[in-house]
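Batch manifest, entry 17 of 40.
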Amino acid sequence: MQRIFIVALLFTTLTGFVSCAQSYDAKLAQLYQNTVPVITVDSLDAWMASRNIALLDTRQLEEYEISHLPGASFVDYDAFSPDQITDLDRNQPVVVYCSVGYRSERIGEQLQELGFSEVYNLYGGIFQWKNEGKIVVDTEGQETDKVHTYNKHWGKWLTNGVKVH
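Output type: C-alpha cells
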C-alpha cells in the first residue's frame, strides 16, 4: 500500500513538472510572433564560451540591476534608440533577451531593421536561463539567485530562483 502511494505521489509530481513546462511553452507560443530567430539556453551558453557575441538585456533598468546574464549590456526597452547601440558591429551576432522573450523580440525586430545581420532572441528569456540552472549576476558582477519577475503574474514562470518584483 505504501509503495502504491509513493509511486502515485512521484507520478503526480513529475506530471506537474511536465505540465508546467508545456504550459510555459504554450504561453511563449502565444507571445512570440516568430520575427526573430530564437536561440536556446544551451546554445547561448556554448556561444558565450566560444564566440564573440553582443548580449543585450532589453528589460527595464530596475530589472537589469537585480540580475542579468554575465556580460550583458542594458538596452532600455521603453526608450530604445539606435544611440544605445552605436558601438555594436552590425555583422556580429547579437542575442537579445528579457523576462520571457516578448520585449526582446520587439527590440530584435528593430535591430534587424537597423541592418544587424545576425539577431537572435533567447527562448524563454532570463526565466528559462535561470530555470535551467544557469548563472545570473548583479550589478557588481556577483552571482545571485534573484531575478526580477516584472510582476507577480509573470513571476509564476520563474521556477528556479528568488523572485523579486
